[in-house]
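Hey L., structure's done. Input below.
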Amino acid sequence: MPRSSRRELARAMTAVSLCGSLRQFAAAQTARPKTRVMLLGTAGGPRPQKSRVPSSQVVIVNEAVYVIDCGVGGATHLALAGVLLSSLRHVFITHHHSDHNAEYGPLLLTAWESGLRTQVDTWGPPPLTRMTELFLEMNDYDIRTRIADEARVPFAPLIRPHELTEEGVILRENGVVVTCAWVDHPPVKSAFAYRLDSPDRSVVISGDTKPCDSLIRLAREADVLVHEVLWPSAVDRLLANAYNAAALKKSILSHHTPAVELGRVAAEARVKTLVLSHFVPAEDPAITEEMWTDAVRRGGYSGPVILGKDLLEV
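Output:
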């Protein structure tokens, strides 16, 4: 074969290979979910842990940031994940236990101090409005000083709280629909789970709850269910040094979902992927990853099971 023909053949083969690679890349980009889901904190309870921070999740749709629950450490983990706090658009609180709301105000303030200039809507049960007002009052000196000294936009007008007293659709915005449902978390009377439906993905965050039909209905056919989980026999070890162990054990067992029961919940809801989070206990070397998964399987769920870790994207 003449040298010129060999060169032309090589160029043609290279072009074919390049086109194939481009098609593969385009297919991969199309297959990748545009709605991102990241676990910021996966520990159950307010007690500090070595490897996990309390409950917090973020869903990102078209660069808009939706945070669900604000346990301590969530803002730092947003930064570690490369999420711009100035892109914060909505904050949802499932219920008013401190491992879910302690960083509610600090997250908003930190976002503002990181360049936030657009409105943030916040959602949750009462007394969310009063909590917002008190936080603004507590930090009034810092806020006024930074506005005057650093030419920042006013902070208070950016925050718009919405108190939830009924379940149903609460938000429709840019192709995203958010629905809330009551969950069973005694003695807390107002506790919600949230479902975010975007054009390419449906995500449900359970909050804290024992098994309940309203959560199953909310999660029906969801692409991702992020659900709290309990290992009942480990509670005694968890509370071994607690002065109020008896009362605390009774409380924990009354309003969380054992791993086996979670398998039943996920199976009945027919969710496509189950993500375990808000682990109780959060750290116990006697409970292996296989044990968590096997317990869910015994409950009847046969789909993919992901054991949540802080900063894991699912």
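The longest strand covers residues 273-280. Confidence is low (pLDDT under 50) at residues 12-19, 24-31.

-- N.
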